[in-house]
Amino acid sequence: MKRMIWTACIMLASVAAWAQESVKPDAFEKGMKQPGVQLLDVRTAKEFSTGHLPDALLADFTKKDEFFHRLESVDKTKPVYIYCLSGGRSTAAAKWMRENGYKEVIELDGGVMAWKQEGKPLSGTEKSGPQMSTALYDKSVASGKWILVDVGAGWCPPCRKMAPVVAQFVKENKVKLVNVDGEHDTHVMQKINAITLPTFLLYKDGKEVWRKEGIVSLEEFKAAMK
C-alpha cells in the first residue's frame, strides 16, 4: 500500500512538473516579467516583424545554424520563456533546450495566437521610414580617427550580449560608435557585405582596418587598434 502511495506521489509530481513547462498567456506574462528571465521568440524574422512580445530575442527555429548560434548567447542557468506562432516550434525547441542543459524553459501555450486572443499587446511592428543611406554611412565612418561600426539588432541574442562590451570599449578608447540596424538598413548591409549579426567593423581615418562577426572580447577590440 505504501509503495502504491509513493508511486502515485511520484506520478503526480511528474505531472505537476510537466504542467509547469507550458502555461497560459496570463501566467506566461506574469512569469516573463520576473528579474533575469530571457524571452525567446523562435519564429521567422518576417513573423517577428509583424509584432512580438516586449523585449523578446529572436532565434529562428527553422534555420538550425542560426538557432544554435544564437542560443550560445542565452544563459542556461537563467529561466527562458519561449514562444512561436501557435506552439509547435516552441515545443520542439524547448524539448531540445531541456535536453541540452537549459535549467528552466517555459512555453507559451498556444503561442502568439493565444496571446492575441487574450487581448494582450504586441510590440515592434514592422519599421517605417527611410533607411540609413550609403552616403550617410560613408560620411559617418569618415568623421573621426577611430570609428567602430556595430551592425546588429535589438532582438539578436549575441548583439544584446555584446552591448556592454561595446559600450566599455568605446568609452575607454575614445572611439566613435556608428550603429547599423541589421534588420532595417539593408542598403548599407549590402554595401559593406555584412550578412551576420552582429558584425563589427573598425575604421581608421576613414578606411576599414578590421572586422569580425559574432562575439568579440574587449581585448580583441583593443588589439585591433594596434
Walk me through this protein's architecture:
Keywords: Signal. InterPro entries: Rhodanese-like_dom, Rhodanese-like_dom_sf, Thioredoxin-like_sf, Thioredoxin_domain, Thiosulfate_ST/Rhodanese-like. Residues 1-19 form the signal peptide. This is Thioredoxin. This protein has ten helices and nine strands. It is of the alpha/beta class and 226 residues long. Strands 1-5-4-2-3 form a five-stranded parallel beta sheet. Strands 7-6-8-9 form a four-stranded mixed beta sheet, with helices on both faces. Strand 4 (80-83), helix 5 (88-99) and strand 5 form a beta-alpha-beta unit.
Strand order within the widest beta sheet = 1-5-4-2-3
Uncertain regions spanning at least 5 consecutive residues = 2-19
The CATH architecture of the largest domain can be named as 3-Layer(aba) Sandwich
What count of domains describes the coordinates? 2
CATH homologous superfamily classification of the largest domain: Rhodanese-like domain
Helix content: 40-55%
Task: Indicate the overall shape.
Answer: elongated
Number of strands: 9
What name does the CATH topology of the largest domain carry?
Answer: Oxidized Rhodanese, domain 1
Task: State the name of the first-level CATH class of the largest domain.
Answer: Alpha Beta
Main sheet properties:
5 strands, parallel
